[in-house]
UniProtKB/TrEMBL annotation, chains A, B, C, D, E, F:
Top-level EC class as recorded in UniProt: transferase
Cross-referenced PROSITE patterns: RIBONUCLEASE_PH
Function text: Phosphorolytic 3'-5' exoribonuclease that plays an important role in tRNA 3'-end maturation. Removes nucleotide residues following the 3'-CCA terminus of tRNAs; can also add nucleotides to the ends of RNA molecules by using nucleoside diphosphates as substrates, but this may not be physiologically important. Probably plays a role in initiation of 16S rRNA degradation (leading to ribosome degradation) during starvation.
SUPFAM superfamilies, A to Z: Ribonuclease PH domain 2-like (SSF55666), Ribosomal protein S5 domain 2-like (SSF54211)
A Pfam family matched in the record: RNase_PH
Record's catalysed reaction(s): tRNA(n+1) + phosphate = tRNA(n) + a ribonucleoside 5'-diphosphate
Protein name: Ribonuclease PH
Keywords from the UniProt entry: Nucleotidyltransferase, Plasmid, RNA-binding, rRNA processing, Transferase, tRNA processing, tRNA-binding
Subunit structure of this chain's protein: Homohexameric ring arranged as a trimer of dimers.
UniProt binding sites for phosphate: R86, G124, T125, R126
Amino acid sequence: MRPSGRNLSDMRPISIETGVMAHAEGSCLIRCGNTHVLCSASVEETAPRWLKGSGQGWVTAEYGMLPRATNTRNRREAASGKQSGRTQEIQRLIGRSLRAGVDRRAMGERQITIDCDVIQADGGTRCASITGGWVALKLAVDKLLKAGVLTSDPIVDHVAAVSCGIYAGQNVLDLDYAEDSEAGTDGNFVMTGAGRLIEVQMSAEGATFSRTEMDGLLDLAEAGVAQLVAAQKAAIG
Amino acid sequence: MRPSGRNLSDMRPISIETGVMAHAEGSCLIRCGNTHVLCSASVEETAPRWLKGSGQGWVTAEYGMLPRATNTRNRREAASGKQSGRTQEIQRLIGRSLRAGVDRRAMGERQITIDCDVIQADGGTRCASITGGWVALKLAVDKLLKAGVLTSDPIVDHVAAVSCGIYAGQNVLDLDYAEDSEAGTDGNFVMTGAGRLIEVQMSAEGATFSRTEMDGLLDLAEAGVAQLVAAQKAAIG
Amino acid sequence: MRPSGRNLSDMRPISIETGVMAHAEGSCLIRCGNTHVLCSASVEETAPRWLKGSGQGWVTAEYGMLPRATNTRNRREAASGKQSGRTQEIQRLIGRSLRAGVDRRAMGERQITIDCDVIQADGGTRCASITGGWVALKLAVDKLLKAGVLTSDPIVDHVAAVSCGIYAGQNVLDLDYAEDSEAGTDGNFVMTGAGRLIEVQMSAEGATFSRTEMDGLLDLAEAGVAQLVAAQKAAIG
Amino acid sequence: MRPSGRNLSDMRPISIETGVMAHAEGSCLIRCGNTHVLCSASVEETAPRWLKGSGQGWVTAEYGMLPRATNTRNRREAASGKQSGRTQEIQRLIGRSLRAGVDRRAMGERQITIDCDVIQADGGTRCASITGGWVALKLAVDKLLKAGVLTSDPIVDHVAAVSCGIYAGQNVLDLDYAEDSEAGTDGNFVMTGAGRLIEVQMSAEGATFSRTEMDGLLDLAEAGVAQLVAAQKAAIG
Amino acid sequence: MRPSGRNLSDMRPISIETGVMAHAEGSCLIRCGNTHVLCSASVEETAPRWLKGSGQGWVTAEYGMLPRATNTRNRREAASGKQSGRTQEIQRLIGRSLRAGVDRRAMGERQITIDCDVIQADGGTRCASITGGWVALKLAVDKLLKAGVLTSDPIVDHVAAVSCGIYAGQNVLDLDYAEDSEAGTDGNFVMTGAGRLIEVQMSAEGATFSRTEMDGLLDLAEAGVAQLVAAQKAAIG
Amino acid sequence: MRPSGRNLSDMRPISIETGVMAHAEGSCLIRCGNTHVLCSASVEETAPRWLKGSGQGWVTAEYGMLPRATNTRNRREAASGKQSGRTQEIQRLIGRSLRAGVDRRAMGERQITIDCDVIQADGGTRCASITGGWVALKLAVDKLLKAGVLTSDPIVDHVAAVSCGIYAGQNVLDLDYAEDSEAGTDGNFVMTGAGRLIEVQMSAEGATFSRTEMDGLLDLAEAGVAQLVAAQKAAIG
């Protein structure tokens, strides 16, 4: 029934290749089916101004998409002179989600910027960015720990995200573009390795939804995030 | 226990004054406690370009805040040259939420723009904007029906929104600023008059949350939205 | 003869409601007929950079208009990415006018920003902004005096403004939009409580004017400003 | 008493050199003492959109200043990404003033853009721009008349402008920068060849003014504009 | 003597992987040593406005760099709100160079946009973009030929580019970043498969250069471009 | 054969008038035929941030064109909100070229900004800007030397530039607009007074070129620059 032939609760194949950007403190290329995102972590030895003297660090994120990551070419945001509302919404979500998995006091007054650049898009780019962004963050933190810059690990738990939605009347896991553009309701679910919730974003696009339907999607999401966390574990070895 | 002395499941006083902007097709001033938002609906007799020939209309929203709506003055967005990510995120949410309560085919190829301008802020401005924006929209649609421009009502149901969160370890309804800035988890819930869900946005800010906690907040939200819908009904007579 | 039925030298009803914005150090809602402007004063305990060490303060103003303050909706300046030439011209005029009524040395090195946001427009928004802006400024200064932050009152005199023009061949006072859009010549007159001139801006729009006509308009303006000053006195009690 | 040694009612030397920009339909370099402005008129054979079908034309103006026209270098507006409020205010004034001397119906549906670029500044740049801009406009119109594109002259009268102010307690004509930066009150006066008023802009900068003082400045302005009109006549032969 | 241990006339290893972006009509990932650029070609079935009716097509290019492509993170151009002068200069060069290898009449009235996004930078990104951009362009054109949209091949010849410079007093081929940042003189040379010159850009950075030195660099460039053209041939099979 | 009737190796008449901008430390109006550029040098007693503590100075340049410098009016860059890619490319070239003729250590930690504003354009504006910009720079440096601010002359040699191209199959020197817009290949050549090369920029526009053709253009350029240097010497006396 799904355009891809997957079962309702099937994730797309996940692959996370680390160390793909030579200059970054941490990096990976995450592939969730045909959605491919390059994630890098850049460490800066100063915190944002508003944290001066607080003893706490900051994690922030930026998101972009290559103009031809999609089926028809999008205008380059650098050329149009501003980031779209969608881009800003996504990068705020990524930053917020990753901060929820970090003890900012243990970071010390430094900032880590996660850049998520979509090389190829087939639905779920914000979820892939969170999942891959966490790997880049973890690798950068491990480097700081190894170098003795950090003495205790500020990473509290895994953070990963997956989308679910109601497609053709059925609850499905890990929507690809063909499903996402048709789904009446969909949502993004960000969770920890322990299965706690960080962010739930559900939207009706054309059809409202019930609490029962919401519960069904949450069940799927829990199963999906568990698989993503396993892939993160494998990637960071 | 709450800074305002309210009970855990108490809403702030709601007041909706209609017809406050002489030029607009529909307008209201909504007050949720000390949060005051001016909402207007402007009808344009052409749809956006991408709907030409589709027979469908569009509802969109813009959001702003007077520089001194808040405790310390914020920079005027018109002067800084762009709308913040927060502003864009909010106005996208308002538009999406209101569209979920509208039969866009019954609108015909016209556009209604909802402007929500926060005069005074004390938490929950996006929820007040949705609830008040729906009243402005309804009044504009009624005017078009009365004038015979529309022959069937495109408004399918009420749309209203409320925030809930976990404050000092307790689930509380309708957060004010003092609570919102301290809450470890909070969420915005957009629902229809019939109690169906349109949008759920829950975020951990400092503390992750469980599905049980989420369910508790949803219970509160259902009760809160019911009161808002009653206030909408009273306002539109 | 006037569209509103007013006599040639009649002002529109003036109403000034103070304390309308809970967070601001001073605020009012001024209504000149159907022109309604929200004015707030925000005190900042540092002066602009170029005044550092001068012992002097600064008064500045910003002006905005809600998109649907007018008969047809205007594009939101925050969305278009810049303030129009008209907006900048008006806010420079408001700031300059209010500074003329202030002893900047008595202010000390602090800045007061007057925000004037037009809620509803029917001609004369810049004049209403000056007249209402002065009330917000005065209230903020009184608060600083009461708190002992200021020890002598930097407000030297009232500042108020009115427009006059030649409509259908007659000199008329306090133009509303219907008159303003037809007037061949019009002007804005900013004066002190003592009747001294601060700013005179007269423009021919379609028909040039003589010194005699200019004198006639100044006579009207003096009478109008006196009424505005009386309303300011009543408002600040 | 004046820094330049001029008498109170002395203008600076005026020189208007025409035909200085080979490509423009009309052009001149106007020198009012050490204030030098390059003015050009560009004819476009279409009117702005809002005049389509009206049978009327439009005159508009743009103003700029070379970065080192002044004593210390100013930031180039093209580099800073926007025109300052001052620039916009001035170019709106130039356009409005020149339109007051034109029968827009006799222009037909075309637009003439007057560019005024200050090469060297010593006070009074907006007045020099209006006076020189009129010459460029007149030359462009004459060219259209000679070519038979226009059959009747849309230029109704001369338009010229001068500044006056109260410097060291005295009314002085044609302020240079040394005077302008010290004057407690100053004004710009735009008039026709027949001595009718087009625009009066008087501002108190530090000291308010009386109607008697205003009358004194108007007397000076009338004498000054007469000399400028004579210089325009000589320039256009 | 070279930091990399290469001989003076050694190129870095070249690798061109095609078909790396699923949605693009043509794409490749070019690696010149540690400089990696993703190149895509997007076909649009309309030409730019200024070519309407000319029977000719257009090739244009856009260039970007991921924020962490370099040793320290660069600000994202989409976030800063504009493309730097360097970015614009490079993308104009890429477009101009590729157009020199195309018969724009044979293209018909369509546009092909080449996006070059630097994933990792180690000197020579603009040259790699031209060389890889040509491959993406060629693949897109081949697709149009295969589909019968084009009937004759508009690609006239290969286009490839290499940098050369004077490093530590010696002429060296294909500068990496360590060399580029120290070279007193360097240049970029764009040539055709037949060895004709398209663009020569030589700059003294600290030390001027002679015609003899320039000739030496041209000799190196010819040899380098020949190797790049061979790699292009291998890539497109 | 040339539209202007010049011989293949004829320069246009060169005129350099110095001291044309009263406020600038150095200035000139350079005329190369009908291309006229105003050049000024502004000295700032602080170096850019990245040179703090280095003991070195900086020379930078900005370039602009009056809207009606050309045959049809161009949009004012200050109004459009950004400098075009062409403008940025040109001003980067001017700055780089002039820096090649300066010992930045002998400048001390100060910055000199060269503004080049094209009053009238007929091809070769970037070359005229470099040649005239050098004169403005030299005059400013001489002033600093005379004032004892500088004790040794940081100007190492003359810097001048000329364009050459292949027009109607022939190598021609100093292209005017009529030639430039038709030439299949053209280039800009920046050289020192001693004949050393600073910058070579050659582009094929429609037709590629050979090394032999390039050599022919370099021969012409050397002769042209020698004449420009002679004009510079005459101008600075």
